[in-house]
Design goal:
Elements lengths: L7 E6 L3 H10 L5 E7 L3 H10 L4 E3 L2 H5 L6 E4 L3 H13 L4 E4 L6 H14 L3 E4 L6 H11 L6 E9 L6 H4 L7 H16 L7 E8 L5 E9 L5 E7 L8 E5 L2 E5 L8 E6 L2 E6 L9 H12 L10 H18 L7
Parallel strand pairs: 1-2, 1-4, 2-3, 4-5, 5-6, 7-10
Antiparallel strand pairs: 7-11, 8-9, 9-10, 11-12, 12-13, 13-14
Helix pairs in contact: 4-5, 5-10
């Protein structure tokens, strides 16, 4: 990604933990300034802008979106609010980076993508892991055929988060899949070039509230490759990832979704690649991607294409249907 010359002013919808990460990361992107934040809770947004030295606070999302001094909108609020927030920004002509998962379900995702394409406005799902330099190196190894034909993908993400009320509440699109499972699912999708699995099998452990707490997923693809993926908000998992090929393998140690180190292992030995440790600023790479795309006139990122985002939402819909997990209004 090249250094941009144009300056971009960002506005943030949501004043929670994930929005703080974006603000911190923006400091290391020279042409990026967060100028406003919005929250439906006045005390929360006032505290947020004071803590992070942001100029403007809004208590209505539409007021931030309609601010002419904002060039890009980051949607960092909870999943059920993504759809309406993104549509509102796109209809106003504002480019959007929306926290993952883009939507609660595939129907919402398709409506958001359709709105972006109809209005010719940039939209990207904020799958920050995909933009890390270490993961970029993995893509280079795969493209160069360093491990031969891909045969297996393994990835897991599990942390005990049962104390987080949002994750256990079906009304807030809770469960492990949308919050944590999206990481291994998106990783496998990236490895497979965005291809959807042809067959899926899974096992799930539900929480008392009816949402998924832990799951094991087995995907098979048309070319014979398969993926074994796990996610949990009940238990800690290894949180690493492997790609197995006919001529070698790639290992991504825990925590794979925030890694600075990757290993290529083949008949020539083990070849580690290490990148700067910037975990606190790890969102900066997706910020750069958005701004690079905007400068070059792209309406979506080739690294996180919108059709792939929809395909991932469809896969999660199918899994939840198999498990009998429904959110209100579906």
């Amino acid at each position: 990604m090249s250094d941009s010359k144009q300056s971009f002013r960002w506005g943030i919808l949501g004043a929670g933990y994930i929005s703080k990460k974006l603000v911190i990361s923006s400091w290391s992107v020279g042409n990026c300034t967060v100028v406003a934040a919005a929250s439906n809770t006045p005390e929360r947004v006032e505290s947020f802008i004071k803590e992070w030295d942001i100029s403007k606070a809004y208590t209505r999302y539409e007021d931030l979106i309609n601010d002419p001094e904002i060039d890009v909108v980051y949607v960092g609020n909870i999943h059920p609010l993504h759809h309406d927030s993104v549509i509102m920004a796109l209809e106003a002509g504002k480019p959007v980076l929306c926290e993952k998962p883009l939507a609660v379900n595939a129907r919402q995702a398709r409506e958001m993508v359709d709105c972006a394409r109809r209005n010719k406005v940039f939209l990207m799902e904020a799958m920050w892991t995909r933009f890390l330099p270490a993961i970029g190196q993995v893509r280079k190894w795969l493209a160069g055929g360093e491990i031969g034909e891909i045969k297996q993908v393994h990835a897991s993400f599990g942390v005990d988060l049962q104390h987080v009320q949002r994750l256990t509440d079906p009304a807030l699109a809770g469960g492990a899949l949308l919050d944590l499972g999206i990481y291994p699912l998106s990783f496998a999708s990236m490895v497979m070039g965005g291809e959807k699995p042809a067959r899926m099998d899974s096992k799930v452990e539900l929480l008392d509230t009816g949402v998924d707490g832990s799951s094991m997923l087995h995907f098979e693809y048309e070319n014979g490759t398969w993926a074994e993926l796990k996610c949990s908000c009940m238990y800690s998992l290894p949180n690493d990832a492997w790609i197995i090929g006919t001529k070698g393998r790639i290992r991504i140690p825990a925590d794979f979704y925030a890694t600075q180190k990757v290993f290529l292992i083949n008949d020539k030995g083990e070849h580690p690649e290490t990148f700067p440790s910037e975990r606190q600023q790890s969102f900066k790479y997706q910020i750069k991607e958005v701004q690079d795309c905007l400068e070059s006139g792209k309406l979506e990122s080739p690294i996180m294409p919108l059709d792939e985002t929809i395909a991932l939402a469809e896969t999660m819909d199918q899994l939840r249907e198999n498990w009998g997990v429904k959110y209100p209004g579906e």
